[in-house]
Amino acid sequence: MYLEILKDHHAGIYELIDTITCAKTASEVTQQADTIARALSRLAGLISIHLAAEDKFLYPNLKKSGLEKVRDTASRFDLEMGHLADTFKGYKEAFMTPTKIKNNPADFLQETKQVIGALLERLRREDNELYPLVEE
Length: 136
Prior knowledge:
Mean pLDDT: 92
Radius of gyration: 16 Å
Low-confidence stretches: none
Helix content: over 70%
Largest sheet: none
Distance between the termini: 14 Å
Strand content: under 5%
Number of helices: 7
Number of strands: 0
Number of domains: 1
Structural class: mainly alpha
């Protein structure tokens, strides 16, 4: 049940990421700044809930698993990706409003590539490596 909620979060996060990353040029970013800022705001809320649930409950519980592979994978993921919440917070604060996005479209594109790329990496690795271990 709990894992299904996390998977639903992932689906929502992927959808919001698609909206945020649809603009590929500075001009497109400027034109779509309102839509991007709304999606970023919604993503920030969902990420906050999701990462807190994983970082405070899922990962600590998996590190106590009776299965070595589950413990090792959870520990490795936590170590490799545990800083993501702080990284995302800085990104969100830099680009939360349409004005901030419009004032720095090139920076927005660059930061989005890095931060959203790291977020996507975490989601995909959890979907493909960690969650299947939990389901076994």
